[in-house]
Structures are given as C-alpha cells and as structure tokens.
C-alpha cells in the first residue's frame, strides 16, 4: 500500500507544481521546521506548539483578533505574537508572527513577508524570487516526494 501511495504522488510531481502549496524546510533555533508561503494570507503565522517547544518568547498581541479559516475547531482568538528568526539555506530573516494553534505547518509566511521582501511568485514553477543583502534569492519548493519523506521523519 505504501508503494502505491508513493507512485500516485510521483505522478502528481510529474505534472509540476500546479496544485501544490509552496512548502519548504526552514531552521528555527537550529531545528528543522515546516514553512509554507501563502500570498493569500494577510498575516505571518507561527504555530503555538513550535513556539512552546523551542522556547520562543511570546508577547501579548497589541490588537487581539479572531481568526477562523485555518482551524477546524472554529473561531480562534489571536492573543500573542512572537519574533521568529528562521533560515533557508543562506537566507536568514527575523519576522513578527501571530501565534495560532495550527498543525499544517510551523511557520506560514503571508502577504506581510512577501511585501517586505518584494518577493515575486512564479505560479508555474511555484518559486519565490527576491533580493537579499544585494544578492538574488530564489526559493524552490519541496517536491511531493520530499514532503512525504519529511512528514514520515517527523512522526
């Protein structure tokens, strides 16, 4: 059964990135985390579980608000925020994130990150390109095979 699931995923991979979210691994406090970039999100988000496990300092959100779209447990009140330093290969950044209980990923970079970095999304290749410290950076997504392997490793 595992072989069949992987072969189905490989066929999806052959079709390119048309149906895939941008997912990549990033390091936070020297630990591998799952990061998603979603330009449709109006917020940068950090999972509460990651913040607690890595001992990140959460502060009270100056303007608490309710959030619903990502949670299957209904309306969630965003009460905390956190500064997160993450790295992807040579690229390093520190961003402010709202803290939410989410399991889909550890960090979700939304429009604020994309705007601040002037990042351009190539929808066909599902890549993000921007300039950082005077150099061009191009972030490549994980393939479906890499995503499956990373998910198995985390369990």
UniProtKB/TrEMBL annotation:
SUPFAM superfamilies: Acid proteases. CDD domains: retropepsin_like (cd00303). Gene3D superfamilies: Acid Proteases. This is Uncharacterized protein. The lineage of its organism: Eukaryota, Viridiplantae, Streptophyta, Embryophyta, Tracheophyta.
């Amino acid at each position: 059964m595992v072989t069949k699931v992987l072969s189905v995923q490989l066929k999806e991979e052959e079709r390119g990135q048309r149906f895939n979210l941008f997912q990549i691994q990033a390091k936070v406090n020297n630990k591998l985390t799952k990061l998603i970039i979603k330009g449709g999100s109006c917020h940068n988000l950090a999972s509460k579980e990651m913040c607690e496990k890595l001992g990140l300092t959460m502060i009270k959100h100056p303007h608490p608000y309710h959030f619903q779209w990502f949670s299957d447990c209904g309306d969630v009140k965003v009460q905390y925020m956190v500064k997160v330093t993450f790295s992807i290969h040579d690229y390093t950044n520190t961003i402010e994130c709202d803290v939410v209980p989410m399991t889909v990923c550890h960090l979700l970079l939304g429009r604020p990150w994309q705007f601040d970095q002037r990042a351009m999304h190539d929808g066909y290749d599902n890549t993000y390109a921007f300039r950082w410290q005077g150099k061009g950076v191009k972030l490549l997504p994980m393939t479906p095979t890499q995503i499956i392997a990373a998910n198995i490793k985390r369990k």
